[in-house]
Write a structure and sequence with these properties.
single chain, 677 residues, alpha+beta, OB fold (Dihydrolipoamide Acetyltransferase, E2P), D-amino Acid Aminotransferase, Chain A, domain 1, DNA polymerase, domain 1, 5 domains, five-stranded mixed β-sheet, 24 strands, globular, binds 2-(butylsulfanyl)adenosine
Length: 677
């Protein structure tokens, strides 16, 4: 007994020693023993634990050393979401970006000042300083919640642990991209597929000491939460923090207008191969932070920034066969299976052929030698067919007119353009097992239910094993069977069960988005949720009679047009879709669209807009209402508090309806006054 007590006390003492060395090394950047001595101490503790089960039960070591990379970091909610970026691939896309900014701000400037920065292909992280001290370091996670990787980030020597400057805001969050240099990667390349994976793997080591073995670097690129705000422009911000000790990219530059955008793009593209880090394009940001604030964000990405990707890397290969893939809305996409070839460091064996017309236009055939290109994460595409290499007996590719499920396919006629759609679609819904599987993948995706541990690959696997056929099955999984599968242990099953249980509680707008009606993306799902408020009301769409009446009303919603209404009708008029949606609803606890809104001038107020405004677009007006705590509704109803009427062509019917219902009406002049007050 005494031996046991002695051993426990010895073990605890050594644990404390290890803790102290971790502190010297990671927090103070000042190790007092050699790496060898540290490793020996670690090994000794692991050995003691292995040989004495009662020590293992104390669970003292797990948090300190030696665990393999894991996803078990503490979760912390981001102060502000970490968004992604929209992409541009050519000059036209950039002209479009400038146009959208002007539309939103209701301006007409060709030369709005942008700040251009290399887009580093690494891993994003965010650093939070309180009174100048680095107190939190998080990974991006799902964008709204990150993981606590502070200790690992602290191993990067050039990240300031303390900022010695009196101008540092009390709360100061710096967004940065962590990467591994190309030369450093050469030394460890047998362990990882590419530098990005190496950086990610290293940052997610449970033992910061392991992180420190891989030489990570970073560039700061953005401002997160800040109080008080002391910067006016993105370029100033980066210049100032560079003075405070942060590393910022020296190739960044202000540009004005499309010609300068193109020039800068070309210049950096030419330098690209000589840099010691991977970049896949340039990020162009509106330089003025107050304009950034006005522009705000869409669901996933800021309106004030865009990633302009470099032209894709290319390679030559041969088409082995052409198959088709069926998407969640039934779209049939032809895919070329090609002889594996490396394009920009990644082995490619599939290339998209987009649609039937594209195959016809390029006369793409099985056996053809083709040039393919890969831009960023986008699926590789065929650039050209080398007809000189074609065999004389090659035959034109005949596009299948049936879906993989055997059903007929159609090309729709667009109501707007009166032209036939280029995309062929399966005419079925959930009855098509290919569509059903893709719908399930959509349901569990990050933007919808975001169930940790239930990603696309797991859905594929569970589907093949007939564990899941429809969404409601997610909540009745046969865990016994899953436990017998390779890669599933007690812990992963427990985590999956918990994640699924947690996901049962879902907001109405997320639910509407998740069921995957064509043309109903995240924004439209919100508009619909604000109209229906509860799942009870939304479910009325399932009943044909009620649906007809509701759909008519939906047309009144700002943002919902005939295309969306037709898509809703198409979805619910399919009885199997309707039944499956009902089964799904039964498993869930769907939260009403929240009318209780945030703080601000329009707190708890429901507003609606009609007409155009002089100083801002209607989109900006709506976004202002939301950031000031209001809720924007799409139709006049008794629930509405204020109708805001812009001077340019307001809809008379809406104004009359509001008057009849005695709803408060504000005209443009008054609206501007409230905003300036
Ligand atoms: S700005 C609101 N600037 O790219 C999002 N991002 O695709 C603002 N990235 O998550 C992002 N270099 O990890 C920005 N100079 C740069 C960047 C950069 C790399 C990464 C970042 C972001 C991702 C978006």
């Amino acid at each position: 007994m005494n031996d046991k007590i002695n051993l426990i006390s010895k073990f605890k003492k050594k644990i404390n020693e290890l803790k102290a060395h971790n502190k010297h090394y990671f927090s103070e950047d000042n190790p007092i023993i050699s790496d060898r001595e540290y490793d020996d101490l670690k090994k000794e503790l692991i050995k003691l634990e292995r040989e004495n089960k009662f020590l293992k039960k104390l669970n003292l070591l797990d948090n300190l050393v030696g665990s393999p990379p894991t996803n078990k970091f503490k979760k912390i909610k981001h102060l502000l979401p970490m968004l992604s970026l929209s992409n541009a691939f050519d000059k036209d896309d950039m002209v479009d970006f400038l146009k959208k900014i002007n539309n939103f701000l209701n301006t007409n400037k060709n030369d709005i000042e942008l700040y251009s920065e290399p887009k580093i292909d690494g891993i994003s992280a965010t650093l939070i300083y309180e009174n100048g001290i680095l107190t939190k370091g998080l990974s991006r996670g799902d964008g709204s919640t990150g993981e606590d990787i502070l200790e690992n980030l602290k191993t990067i020597k050039s990240i300031p642990k303390k900022i010695d400057n009196k101008n540092v805001p009390n709360l100061f969050e710096v967004r940065c991209e962590v990467f591994i240099g190309k030369k450093d990667f050469e030394k460890i390349k047998n362990k990882f597929a590419n530098p990005r994976n190496a950086a990610g793997g290293s940052l997610r080591q449970k033992d910061p000491r392991e992180t420190s073995k891989i030489p990570l670097k970073y560039f700061a690129y953005g401002l997160g939460a800040v109080d008080p705000l002391k910067f006016q422009t993105q370029s100033d911000f980066l210049k100032i923090i560079n003075g405070w000790g942060f590393l910022t990219n020296p190739l960044s530059k202000t540009v004005n207008g499309i010609l300068e955008i193109e020039k800068q793009h070309q210049k950096i593209d030419n330098l690209r191969s000589s840099l010691d880090y991977d970049i896949d394009g340039l990020v162009y940001k509106v330089n003025d932070l107050s304009l950034q604030k006005r522009l705000g964000n869409t669901s996933n990405a800021p309106r004030w920034a865009i990633a302009y990707k470099f032209s894709a890397e290319q390679a030559v290969t041969k088409i082995k066969s052409i198959t088709i893939q069926v998407g969640r809305t039934g779209a049939i996409t032809p895919v070329a299976k090609v002889e594996p070839v490396t394009v920009g460091g990644v082995v490619v064996s599939n290339a998209t052929l987009h649609n039937e017309d594209e195959i016809k236009r390029k006369d793409i055939r099985i056996g053809d030698t083709i040039q393919i290109q890969r831009a960023g994460d986008v699926i590789p595409q065929v650039v050209l067919v080398d007809i000189s290499k074609r065999k004389s007996n090659s035959k034109k590719f005949i596009f299948p007119v049936k879906c993989l499920c055997g059903s007929n396919t159609i090309k729709e006629l667009s109501k707007n353009t009166k032209k036939e759609d280029a995309v062929r679609r399966c005419t079925k819904g959930y009855e098509c097992q290919y569509i059903a599987k893709e719908k399930l993948k959509h349901i569990v995706s990050k933007e919808a239910f975001n169930i940790e541990g239930l990603g696309k690959k797991v859905i594929d696997n569970f589907w093949n094993l007939k564990l899941i056929k429809e969404p409601s099955d997610i909540f009745n999984l046969d865990y016994k069977k899953i436990r017998s599968l390779e890669g599933w242990g007690d812990l992963s099953i427990k985590n999956l069960k918990n994640a699924i249980l947690k996901s049962k509680k879902v907001n109405l707008d997320k639910f509407i988005y998740s069921i995957g009606i064509r043309h109903i993306g995240q924004e439209n799902a919100k508009i619909l949720a604000s109209f229906f408020i509860s799942i009870k009301e939304f479910s009325k769409l399932i009943c044909p009679k009620q649906r007809k009446y509701i759909l008519k009303n939906l047309l009144e919603l700002d943002g919902i047009g005939e295309t969306q209404v037709d898509a809703i009708e198409y979805f619910f008029s399919n009885e199997i879709n309707a039944k499956i949606t009902q089964n799904f609803i039964r498993q869930l606890s769907i939260i009403n669209y929240s009318i209780i809104s945030g703080d601000g001038k329009f707190s708890n107020k429901k507003l609606m807009f009609t007409g155009g405004f002089q100083n801002m677009s209607r989109s900006e007006a709506k976004s202002i209402a939301e950031t000031n705590g209001g809720k924007v509704l799409g139709a006049i109803s008794k629930k509405l508090d204020i109708l805001v009427v812009g001077d340019t062509k307001p809809t008379k019917k809406k104004v009359d309806q509001a008057k009849a219902m005695k709803i408060k009406i504000i005209f443009e002049k008054e609206w501007n006054k409230i905003l300036n007050s």
